[in-house]
TrEMBL record:
Domain Tail sheath protein subtilisin-like: 103-282
Record-annotated Tail sheath protein C-terminal domain positions: 287-389
Region (Disordered): 160-187
Protein name: Tail sheath protein C-terminal domain-containing protein
Family: Belongs to the myoviridae tail sheath protein family.
C-alpha cells in the first residue's frame, strides 16, 4: 500500500485477478520429406506460408526440378485450406527417422499441431511419426495408407518396425508386408491413417495426372475445418480439393471391414464427388480416443491451459490460488462449451474443475505441488445415422435417431 500523507482523493488501479486462458492454434502442420531440390536447407524446419513460398525456397528453378511427394503434400495442404506449415527437407527415410534430423527437427516448434511425412509408408516410417507425436503429446500424425494393396484384408494387418524380410524373385530383399499394411495402434489416438491415394494434377506439371499421397490434402482439410467450425468438428464428410479420382474405389462393404480397424477411407460418390469418409484414430475401436476430433480437442485444451497458467508457479499455495485456478479454467471451458465442443445443456453438465483442499492436502503442498482435476464431456461425431421407419394405423410414422 502506498503512503498517503496529503489529504485528498486518490485513484488506484486494482487488478480484477482474472487471467483469461487463450486457445492455442491447431492448424499449423509440420511436413517431412524429400524436397524438389534435396540440397536446399536440409534438416532445417523452414516456415512456409504459401505454395509459391515453398517453390521459391525449395525449387528456385522449377524447370530443373521434379515433383516429389513432399511437394504434392504441401500443395494439397494450401489448396485445401492450410495457411502455415513447417517443412523439413530430408534426402531419404533414414534421415526422416534420425534423432535430430527429419522429425527430430520439428520438436523445437511448439506451434505445430499436425505432422505428416507424405509418401512414406514403410513400417519404420509409420512408427517414427507416431512415436514423435506420442512423445510430444501436442500434435497428431496423418499417415498415408499404401499406394496399392493386394487385397483389403491385407490392408487391415498391422505393420511393425520389425517386419520380416524375404527374397523376391530377383533375389532382392524386400518387405514382406503382403501389399501394404496398416500402421500400428496408437493407444491414445495420436495418429490417423487414410486410404487410398488420390489422383490429381502434378503441381510441377499441370498437364500430368499422378497418384498422390493424401496426407498433405488431409492436413489442409483439418485446417479448413478448424477455421470454419472449430477443432471439435470431425474433419470428415469434406471435399478433397484437387482430387480428380482415387487410386482405388473403396466399396461400402470394404469400408465396413476397414472402419473398425481405424482406416479412414477417401470415397468417390457419384453426386458428392471425392470426400473424406472416416474420422477414426489408430486407437482401439473400444477406446475413448477413437475419434480424431476428440484427440485434437484435448490436445488444444491441454496446451492452452499449460501455456496460460504460468502465473501460478511460485504463488502462495493457498485457497486464494485454488480459487484463481478454478475461476480461470472454468471461464475458458465455458467458452469452449459455448462453441459447441462440449456436450451438455449447461456448463455444469459439460465439465467440472476441482482444485481444493481434498486434492491438495498438507503432504501435497509440502511437496511444492498444486493439483487441479478437470473432467470434460466432448462432443463426438454422428458416425452412424439411423432412420427407423414403421407404420401405424394412421399411416406412415418416422422416428429419427442420430
Amino acid at each position: 500500500m502506498p503512503n498517503y500523507l496529503t489529504p485528498g482523493v486518490y485513484v488506484e488501479e486494482v487488478s480484477s485477478g482474472a487471467r483469461p486462458i487463450q486457445p492455442v492454434g491447431t492448424s499449423t502442420a509440420g511436413f517431412v520429406g524429400i524436397a524438389p531440390d534435396p540440397s536446399i536447407r536440409p534438416h532445417e524446419p523452414v516456415a512456409i506460408n504459401s505454395w509459391s513460398h515453398f517453390m521459391r525456397v525449395f525449387a528456385p528453378d522449377p524447370a530443373k526440378t521434379e515433383s516429389t511427394h513432399l511437394a504434392q503434400g504441401v500443395h494439397g495442404f494450401f489448396l485445401n485450406g492450410g495457411s502455415r506449415c513447417y517443412v523439413v527437407n530430408c534426402q531419404d527415410e533414414n534421415q526422416l527417422t534420425g534423432n535430430r534430423k527429419g522429425l527430430g527437427a520439428l520438436e523445437t516448434i511448439d506451434e505445430i499441431a499436425i505432422v505428416a511425412a507424405p509418401g512414406f509408408t514403410s513400417a519404420a516410417a509409420y512408427d517414427a511419426v507416431l512415436n514423435h507425436c506420442e512423445k510430444m503429446e501436442d500434435r497428431v500424425a496423418i499417415l498415408d495408407g499404401p499406394q496399392s494393396v493386394d487385397s483389403i484384408n491385407n490392408l487391415t494387418k498391422v505393420a511393425t518396425a520389425k517386419a520380416t524380410k524375404k527374397k523376391d524373385e530377383d533375389g532382392e530383399s524386400s518387405s514382406g508386408d503382403g501389399g501394404g499394411l496398416r500402421p500400428r495402434n496408437s493407444d491414445r489416438g495420436y495418429g490417423a491413417v487414410y486410404f487410398p491415394w488420390i489422383v490429381g494434377r502434378d503441381p510441377n506439371n499441370r498437364s500430368s495426372l499422378v497418384p498422390m499421397p493424401p496426407s498433405g490434402h488431409m492436413a489442409g482439410i483439418y485446417a479448413r475445418t478448424d477455421a470454419q467450425r472449430g477443432v471439435h468438428k470431425a474433419p470428415a464428410n469434406e471435399t478433397v480439393r484437387g482430387a480428380l479420382n482415387v487410386s482405388y474405389r473403396v466399396t461400402r462393404q470394404e469400408q465396413a471391414e476397414l472402419n473398425p480397424q481405424g482406416v479412414n477411407c477417401i470415397r468417390f460418390f457419384p453426386r458428392e464427388g471425392i470426400r473424406v469418409w472416416g474420422a477414426r484414430t489408430l486407437a482401439p475401436a473400444a477406446s475413448e480416443w477413437r475419434y480424431i476430433n476428440v484427440r485434437r480437442l484435448f490436445n488444444m485444451i491441454k496446451e492452452s491451459i499449460a501455456e496460460s497458467t504460468h502465473w501460478v508457479v511460485f504463488q502462495p499455495n493457498d485457497k486464494d490460488l485454488w480459487m484463481g485456478i478454478k475461476r480461470d479454467v472454468s471461464a475458458f471451458l465455458t467458452q469452449i462449451w459455448r462453441q459447441g465442443a462440449l456436450f451438455g445443456s449447461t456448463p455444469e453438465e459439460a465439465f467440472f474443475v476441482q482444485c481444493d483442499a481434498e486434492l491438495n492436502p498438507p503432504e501435497v503442498r509440502d511437496a511444492g505441488k498444486v493439483i487441479t482435476r478437470i473432467g470434460l464431456a466432448p462432443v463426438k461425431p454422428a458416425e452412424f445415422v439411423i432412420f427407423q421407419i414403421g407404420q401405424d394405423t394412421g399411416g406412415a410414422q418416422t422416428e429419427e435417431q442420430a
